[in-house]
Design goal:
homotetramer; 286 residues; alpha+beta; seven-stranded mixed beta sheet; 9 helices; 11% strand; globular; disordered N terminus
């Protein structure tokens, strides 16, 4: 094997001249590599824990039922994402989390069943470099907006991100009469195009897709999209003109959600959702 | 007793000639019979377990309350079906499961109370050879559709089977002013006629009947019929034209539900419903 | 004390003549009295248990919240009724049950607080000899019907008794501007008049009163009145003509509820409600 | 230090003349001070317990979710109020309760996060000497009334206090396009002005503020404001003219809520809410 190494490698030349310094350098490099690897592995472990929590939280908050899935982009490999094997989100554990590439192929499938609509995730990650998490759900009060002409718009601060507009994806335009499921890359790509640069799109007669810059914030978006849909439905029932959150207001509201500060915004609700969905798993009170 | 046996029975003649071979043959026949009987009894035991689970699941999911009942056709005797004694579905145990013939007569009643509307089940099994399970419920959001002119139609993928149309059974047409209950074979037959070859029919001011090709899938149908009714009600409240699931879409969606694959479709939700309705009874994670 | 006994009492004369027979007679009379008293006391004990269960059930089923009350006529003294001390129904225990006369005066108050609207109960018992139980609640979906012109009518079999019509009591007609509470006999009497011979009346902006021929059936009536109100509200939202349960149908439905048969009608749901509201208190499975 | 004492202090002169009497007097003064301090500290402790309970109750009753906050004026220092550190109300414990002055500055912050909208509380306490408790929530059914033209009005006795009128605060009028949050004193003051002398105001697209003369009664007001919003929404859906609680009726109803009597009004529901929100923390049954 050694004959493959280029004879003029600078490290080799240094080591030949200053063996002790060389040894120290090599040790330092190894240690740094170890630290990096171990930091990476801690990041991955933390993300997997959050992904399991996200599954359980979305179920407990009524956003997903037995169906629906949530994924997160890999913390160090941007062309991979993490998602559970095909299982009801409310039952997912760390052992179920698998890695997929951006063609939605599992890296290490073994014999586990996988979600047939994983192309929703792979195609959104391909199209949207800014997206670190994707949720697909049958969020119940969102669906009536997908089969009528009433646009889902923001009426509440906590869902102000809907002020960017919520497009509706119509599978018939893309695939004609079909099973209305995003079961291949073409359909996933078409959905990603409908989504554009927005945080939420609806799938007609099916559900929605919610994306965001990090997993916890995306979970909050999915939950408050449902909450806002209930409020908007009731406002429509009351009748008359409705005052929506203005896109300008949304910009200023979202600015305050950028950083995750202990006790504020997403962190405050995440700690509560976590405690309820996975009792005992919550982080120590801060 | 032996004189009743025909003298020329071939087995008897063989045995007379080759006693050892005969003995082996008899033993083999007995063993095969035992195996068959034991396989049948394992099938029956599994179906009874599923039927108890179905009762509990339908209650926990809000499809039945204290009233309503669910039955399954006998796994080996097509002219019999299994159903609980008269009891709130949420309290049913394996000991409550009884066998009925297609005249709705209990095979071994002992002194147990029986559902007065068991004719819903017997008459549907008679009329529909393709049906292996029948559910009658007061599914709450379904009932408003039974007393108005708004047809219950499919707006969501998971209830696409409603695209076949949902007829409403009006007891007054059949029995005039009555107690509005399906308490005899004539009424059951009329209801089965209204149902036709569809999966769901409503009973005006009373509830619905849901049928299917196997028990688990029928339970899923009953649950998603209620879910779809809630979504449709909200769509009607939003106003304007509604995009329904197309019968063509339904055909393609239903095709994917035919086989029960671990982790997919009905299996995925059944495992979750089971775990919640009967904690500890769920099958090992797969 | 003995000098107060009339000298010519027939028992006394007999006993003087036939002392042994007399002794046996006296013993028999005492035994019969004991039995009767003990049967009466068992009846009372059973009714108190049911009344505690009724309080808990009505809370768990969402008919009463912290307010509302339920009473039962005394099993042997028709001019008395049993009701809890002033306490949230969901917290009532056997120790809280008190006796009241038909002027709503507590028999043995000690220092317990009592419901200020107990006149609802006393005046209904006075006016309606056929009534053995009275429930007053803020049944949530019933109240919108009390402040609009839409009559609460029966759309579901289980609430067919509403086909008799549901009048609305307007306190302003009786007491002008008031605290809108039935805090004296005059107001109670006016409410009883509005109720007439029906099972349910609404109190405008306040709640309802539900009565019945026995406690368990009255509890079922209160629960299904709320269930029916939800269904009717949804039917109104769907729009168009509504098919109500016909008074003739109600007569035939109610006929089947007269007797309490194990496993049927009220008994079936009561056993379930009881098990949920007071785990461990349910009667052995039958 | 003693040289700072004025030489002609009357106590000093008395003590010089009558040392024994002086000693007794001093001891008495100290004892009285101790008693007063200890009574004050018991009051404070009881209020903190109630404030923790209020947080938990408002969460369990669905008035606050992860957001929202509740405060109480300090029992002895009218220019201070008590409120939790920035945390989901459903997770608040006694250790989280902090003291704030009327500029919304924490007295002893240490490194705890604080609610950014604490100015709602400080400015209302400044403007309203009669107010002893303030609740800000995203009470879900109240919000549709904040984005439509339908005023939130009283339809039910338990929320009769809404008969005083419920104004809607529009942040755009005060701060133009903003993050729609009450994050400074100017905005808080404007909100307090909109509130005026009423018990409840809505914040457009955001939530409400509820105030009252004591903490428990304010909690009941927040809960019944949500309950009443649900009832009014349903009444609007039923259509036609609605009979509201008359301001005159409200005056008479509120009169009966002034005193907190064991087993009546607010005390009755508080004991129930407490038992459910903090099992084991309820006061002994009375």
């Amino acid at each position: 094997m050694t004959q493959d190494r280029p004879r003029d490698h600078p490290l080799r030349r240094s080591c030949a001249r200053r063996p002790l310094l060389c040894l120290l350098g090599v040790l330092a490099l190894l240690a740094a590599g170890d630290l990096r690897a171990s930091a990476q592995s801690a990041d991955l472990k933390a993300l997997i824990d959050d992904l399991v929590a996200a599954n359980r939280i979305l179920y407990r908050q009524g956003v997903v039922d037995g169906f629906g899935h949530v994924s997160a982009r890999h913390p160090t490999q941007a062309d991979r994402f993490l998602m559970a094997a095909a299982k009801a989100p409310g039952r997912v554990t760390a052992e179920d989390i698998m890695e997929f590439d951006l063609d939605a192929k599992p890296i290490d499938r073994r014999d586990r069943p996988i979600y047939s609509e994983r192309f929703i995730h792979s195609e959104v990650y391909k199209a949207r470099g800014d997206v670190a998490a994707v949720i697909h759900s049958h969020s119940p009060t969102v669906i009536p907006f997908s089969v009528t002409q009433v646009p889902l718009r923001a009426v509440h601060n906590t869902a102000s991100f809907l002020a960017a507009g919520v497009p509706v994806f119509e599978m018939r335009r893309v695939a004609g009469m079909s099973n209305n499921l995003v079961t291949d890359a073409m359909r996933g790509r078409a959905l990603a195009e409908t989504l554009g640069d927005r945080p939420v799109a609806l799938l007609r007669g099916h559900g929605n897709v919610v994306v965001g810059p990090d997993l916890r914030r995306t979970v909050a978006r999915a939950i408050y999209t449902e909450v806002n849909a209930r409020m908007l439905l009731q406002a429509v029932m009351l009748g008359g003109p409705i005052t929506f959150i203005d896109p300008e207001e949304n910009k200023l509201i979202e600015a305050g959600r950028g950083a995750q500060i202990t006790g504020h915004s997403v962190d405050r609700v995440w700690q509560m959702w976590l405690e309820e969905a996975l009792p005992g798993a919550s982080e120590p009170a801060r």
